[in-house]
């Protein structure tokens, strides 16, 4: 019998890569899908006819329970959240509801409906906040500085409590920033690569950004999706860090992305103070030694190759829309 996976956040960046990976491994893949799912289904359109999509929402306990009863999953991947850190300052209660309580609702419904199912909880390096230890490991204390970081930390600790109290199989992957051409346009890397493509084609003259001097540990979302699957194949539910092990500033990302298109970022980037956050995580760097040792996980895409792929994708998509508008 085919294994069954249930993914929340299946229309998102990492959820969509995970769905493809699981289809390739011959799983039956179910996804919880909001009627108003932010980016529509564009990321899964190419293989949507092979998925079972069930309407529902992490804020609606009944819909979670209904979905679990329909699909009887062996593995559950909780990839859904209000994941934008800056938005979490504007909508802290909504963020807590979806990202924090939403995870708890899922854990509790799984306990009641299908207690043997294994759960992957997408935890975040944002939980470390301004960590006093570098690089961060699974043992580094959390010190979140955003409503999003607090909500993810709540979910992470709920996972631990359910493991201890009910022997639920809930494993947490603490993923550092992960990007790709499927990254939402509101996150800094994609905002930059889209701007590079539009500036290159003279569709705009500048790019407004906030803090260029924060450091992030960036890897490819495909690698993080693979890490999520490996996490649930491990015999015991544990926490694992997924990170590249290299940290770069937003400025370095910008510089490299503009250079890929033969441009100098300094001539186009303007700082807009309104894009600065009330509190900022200034430096993140992850140590994935445990995931490498126990899961055999290795990040496969370098910082440079990631930027190259994103810039090439966005240049091609601008060129495509320019040529279709000329043809039309
Ligand atoms: O791309 P970002 O919005 O990602 P951030 O805040 O690090 O969060 C992402 O990674 C987390 C993992 O640690 C995830 F949990 C979370 O869901 C999300 O995927 O911002 C990266 C950095 C920040 O320091 C931000 O202040 O870029 C800086 N930045 C500068 N200008 C900007 C901008 N960020 C955005 N989104 N937009 C700007 O214009």
Please describe what this structure looks like.
This protein is of the alpha/beta class and 328 residues long. Helix content is 43%, strand content 16%. It has ten helices and 13 strands. It has helices at 13-24, 61-71, 85-90, 92-113, 147-166, 188-200, 221-233, 250-260, 289-295, 303-327, and strands spanning 4-8, 28-33, 52-55, 75-78, 118-124, 169-175, 178-179, 207-209, 215-216, 219-220, 239-242, 248-249, 269-271. Strands 3-2-1-4-5-6-11 form a seven-stranded parallel beta sheet, with helices on both faces. A two-stranded parallel sheet has the order 7-10. A two-stranded parallel ribbon has the order 8-13. Strand 1 (4-8), helix 1 and strand 2 form a beta-alpha-beta unit. The protein is globular, with a radius of gyration of 20 Å. The model has no long low-confidence stretch (mean pLDDT 97). The structure holds ligand G4F. The site of ligand G4F has 22 residues, from helix 3 and helix 6.
């Amino acid at each position: 019998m085919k294994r069954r996976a249930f993914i929340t956040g299946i229309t998102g960046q990492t959820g969509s890569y995970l769905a493809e990976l699981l289809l390739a491994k011959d799983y039956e893949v179910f996804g919880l899908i909001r009627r108003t799912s932010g980016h529509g289904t564009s990321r899964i359109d190419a293989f949507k006819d092979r998925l079972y999509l069930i309407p529902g929402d992490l804020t609606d306990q009944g819909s979670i329970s209904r979905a679990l009863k329909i699909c009887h999953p062996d593995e559950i991947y909780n990839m859904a959240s209000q994941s934008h850190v800056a938005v979490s300052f504007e909508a802290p209660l909504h963020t807590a509801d979806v990202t924090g309580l939403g995870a708890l609702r899922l854990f509790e419904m799984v306990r009641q409906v299908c207690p043997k199912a294994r759960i992957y909880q997408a935890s975040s390096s944002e939980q470390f906040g301004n960590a006093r230890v570098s690089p961060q490991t699974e043992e580094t204390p959390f010190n979140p500085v955003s409503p999003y970081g607090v909500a993810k930390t709540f979910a992470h600790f709920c996972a631990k409590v359910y493991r201890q109290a009910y022997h639920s199989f809930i494993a947490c992957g603490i993923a550092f920033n992960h990007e790709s051409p499927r990254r939402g346009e509101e996150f800094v890397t994609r905002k930059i690569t889209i701007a590079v493509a539009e500036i290159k084609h003279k569709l705009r003259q500048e790019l407004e950004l906030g803090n260029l001097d924060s450091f992030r540990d960036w890897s490819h979302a495909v690698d993080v999706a693979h890490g999520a699957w490996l996490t649930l194949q491990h015999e015991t539910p544990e926490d694992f860090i997924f990170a590249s092990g290299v940290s770069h500033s937003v400025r370095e990302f910008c510089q490299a992305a503009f250079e890929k298109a033969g441009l100098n970022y300094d001539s186009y980037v303007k700082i807009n103070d309104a894009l600065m956050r009330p509190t900022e995580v200034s430096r993140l760097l992850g140590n994935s030694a445990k995931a490498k040792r126990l899961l055999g996980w290795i990040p496969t895409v370098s910082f440079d190759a990631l930027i190259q792929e994103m810039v090439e994708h966005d240049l091609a998509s601008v060129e495509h829309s320019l040529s279709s508008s000329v043809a039309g």
